[in-house]
Amino acid sequence: xxxxxxxxxxxxxxxxxxxxxxxxxxxxxxxxxxxxxxxxxxxxxxxxxxxxxxxxxxxxxxxxxxxxxxxxxxxxxxxxxxxxxxxxxxxxxxxxxxxxxxxxxxxxxxxxxxxxxxxxxxxxxxxxxxxxxxxxxxxxxxxxxxxxxxxxxxxxxxxxxxxxxxxxxxxxxxxxxxxxxxxxxxxxxxxxxxxxxxxxxxxxxxxxxxxxxxxxxxxxxxxxxxxxxxxxxxxxxxxxxxxxxxxxxxxxxxxxxxxxxxxxxxxxxxxxxxxxxxxxxxxxxxxxxxxxxxxxxxxxxxxxxxxxxxxxxxxxxxxxxxxxxxxxxxxxxxxxxxxxxxxxxxxxxxxxxxxxxxxxxxxxxxxxxxxxxxxxxxxxxxxxxxxxxxxxxxxxxxxxxxxxxxxxxxxxxxxxxxxxxxxxxxxxxxxxxxxxxxxxxxxxxxxxxxxxxxxxxxxxxxxxxxxx
Length: 468
Hints:
mainly alpha; disordered C terminus; disordered N terminus; 0% strand; 2 domains; 15 helices
């Protein structure tokens, strides 16, 4: 038995019925809250960009930059998810106290970032040309071309930032990343103001200035993280690059990237479909989507925390701890989902009334928004355990079947059901959201069934083969 495992077991207090689960719940919350704040701060930056472009340059400019921004987001989430494949391996190396393996995995992460950037950056850069083939307005694409190209360059430092965020989370130290992110929030707003309007010798770049500010913030964040990493670097012997290890991490990471694209894509598809419906449907959907982003930050944090804690427990092969992680994660997901269902159900009407005016169009939007917000609460209730289960499976490097579950549930069942309810039953955007809730419910059922199967099988909580 390894020294790290012996020390871990020796330090553990006597086992009680609820003690391990309560202890693990505390560990999950301590790890999860900074991850949630990071997601909220990043969302705040995005909202700031949107508001400032809209206020300064109007709806047409906002529409022009939104095309490039949305495309960038989809590609970024695919890349970020793929880089996330490093996390369970790195968490296991941290649990073992293996500095050489941590350095090896960091080199693998940088190689993955380069490989992902090679196709992704040109794909975004030339988007105004190839998106015309899908019938998008050529004038709108031309108006947002410079912004889109700046966002293509932004992806390069953001992949490095994402890698460090992944490694810090896997090492259970997301607080360091949170500090850097909080420092960049006001700089992002200031950069928008200066670069869009100009100041002294700095010319006014218009809407493209928002993209330049994002690029500068990404570079600043990466530089700060590189400096922090150099201060804590541990000297390890140089080694030949581990190509087999890279393939092992990619086998875990690529399904995560596809899953991220599935989640992002289904909401983008609903947004595009809702844009063809009534003004009340569009307005109500917009409000609900903003609330969904806030709610998702908490569930994403639990998902990431569950992945890291399960990877650590599985590596140390302490069966009681793997069970405690599983029970604590699912318990917290049930509590979180129930809390959001209650808050959104009781807060739906006050929130909708506060958000919309008392005009006929506003009153119509209020009625639709109340229903959508309740559906959002129901989606959180049925979806939270599935997201926690997804994190637990990723901690065991099980990512391919969960990817298939999500693709099948959302695109194979939820999307067709939503369109049928919208068009045939005349439910409008409400039908689309019922489809989303159905997709979340099916995903959760399949994910928990997979988790139960792994738990019931012998040695399923033992660590998978390392990427060596």
